[in-house]
Amino acid sequence: MAGITTHIVLSQKALSSFLPDKNKEEFIVGTSFPDIRYLNVVSREQTHLQKVNLESIEHEPDSFTAGFRYHSLIDEARESFILKNNIYTILPESPFITQALKIYEDKVLLDKLSNRAGIIRYFDNILPAEEEFAIPVVKLTKWHKLIQEWLSSPAEEPDVRLVLAALSFDKEQTKEITELIHKIEDIPIIKDITMRLYEDLETILTVEA
Q1: How far apart are CA 208 and CA 80, in angstroms?
Q2: What is the distance between the alpha carbons of residues 132 and 128, in angstroms, rounded to a whole number?
Q3: Residues 6+ away with beta carbon under 8 Å from 114
Q4: How far apart are CA 28 and CA 30, in angstroms?
Q5: Alpha-carbon distance 93 to 129, whole Å?
Q6: Among 30, 38, 69, 158, whose Cα sits 20 to 30 Å from the Cα of 146?
């Protein structure tokens, strides 16, 4: 399960190479949408699909739906890639290690985000496709604002408290996650593997998912 920035960066990678026919705004908003579940407005089963493949996304005519499906493909492929590289065996033990790793990956890949200001503007408005999930507009707006604020954070030291508070983590949990992120930063191979996920994306999506 990837983080907000990671999903968007890997969407841009796909749009510029193997999914060039999709509407960029609709695809990126679509691929960011499934994790709105963290606001406790929908279940994971409603927003995360099983056994999605790249071919089905390539043939999906609706860009929002294609992005929505791509989210699940990325989650599955990333987790498989991480397990294959034995990442969890070299990370500190903690019930919050998955959250820390996702935020660390976001921090690493933020530098790969192109047209950041334009991407942030994609979330100025709610798309009709999002409203079809019968989620209150106030919650849809909250999710968009959270994404915009997270993407606006400096890459050197993103405001971890911002995203964790919005996702209902308390101060002690946030402190532990922040400390875990700093420990991950001291393990160089984690950054190398994160960059391989980005650089070898199309192959990974074909092999791992």
Answers
A1: 6
A2: 7
A3: 12
A4: 5
A5: 39
A6: 69
